[in-house]
Amino acid sequence: MSKMAVWVQTLRPRTLPAAVGPIVLGQVLVAPGHFSWLTAVLCLVCALALQLAVNLANDLFDGLAGVDQHDRLGPTRALQAGLLSAGELQVGLMLMLGIAVATGLWLVIFGHWLLWGLGGLALLGVLGYSGGRRPYANLGLGEVAVWLFFGPVAVLGSLLAQQSPLHGGVILAASLVGLPVAAILVVNNLRDRYTDARAGKLTLAVRLGLQANRWLFSLLTFGPWLVSLPFALAPWAWVAWGCIGLAALGLNVTLWQRDGSALNPVLGQTALYSLVVALWLGLRLG
């Protein structure tokens, strides 16, 4: 593989729809008179940089901690496979965090003061998932953190960056959009539960087991679809809502029938599903 191909693989571009959806939803929900294209673009760049930073951090910290071994079932990890050094990953991680901080500072300066807290929380979330002395992934809190950062923090943060007022519908949408994103991590951790357990990484999949996590995936994928039923009023909306339900059903049938490396395609499919849910919520609530 060329060095460029290695970096592209390590950055995991297939996960990016999970970062795009909540930001798009947030911008759609901005109140009239508050929208700025510059702010919207900076929100998106910041979110993408943070997502890429998470991917690099997981490769780096899991590799250093010995979580990734030769029998890994997921996509190749650059550090474990010797494709990139720890130093190279650290440089890439700092670059992504630098982009996130630079864009975030602009948003904080011209947005709401609460963004200081949300921005700091996001940086801690990137580094704390698999890094530090007590990574919160080891505590079984990964799915909760993903829901928080890709739901309320991303959506409400992008609204605050636009100085747009918050209301009940916005908070509901922010709570729902993070659920299918958390489902991506459920798939990832189900696939890796044996190697994670061996390395002492006590994810929710390790703690609860196969069947309970399959039910959790169903809840996270069907949940926002079911809750959005009252919003489906026009005929086209019923058709769209039904199609989303069929997509969720297809994902669940696949997940319940597969295990191990056979779950890899479900990761990208669930990421795309999370983007579709975000667009649907934006159409119905925007």
Automatic annotation (TrEMBL):
Keywords: Cell membrane, Membrane, Menaquinone biosynthesis, Transferase, Transmembrane, Transmembrane helix. Belongs to the MenA family. Type 1 subfamily. The keyword Transferase applies. GO terms for molecular function: 1,4-dihydroxy-2-naphthoate polyprenyltransferase activity. GO terms for biological process: menaquinone biosynthetic process; vitamin K biosynthetic process. It catalyses: an all-trans-polyprenyl diphosphate + 1,4-dihydroxy-2-naphthoate + H(+) = a 2-demethylmenaquinol + CO2 + diphosphate. GO terms for cellular component: plasma membrane. Conversion of 1,4-dihydroxy-2-naphthoate (DHNA) to demethylmenaquinone (DMK). Its EC number is 2.5.1.74. NCBIfam families: menA. It comes from Vreelandella rituensis. Its main location: membrane. It is an enzyme of class 2 (transferase). Pathway: Quinol/quinone metabolism; menaquinone biosynthesis; menaquinol from 1,4-dihydroxy-2-naphthoate: step 1/2. This is 1,4-dihydroxy-2-naphthoate octaprenyltransferase. It comes from the Bacteria. It is a multi-pass membrane protein. It is found in: Cell membrane; Membrane. The keyword Transferase applies. CDD domains: PT_UbiA_UBIAD1 (cd13962). The chain crosses the membrane at residues 35-57, 78-99, 105-127, 139-160, 166-187, 208-227, 233-255, 262-283.
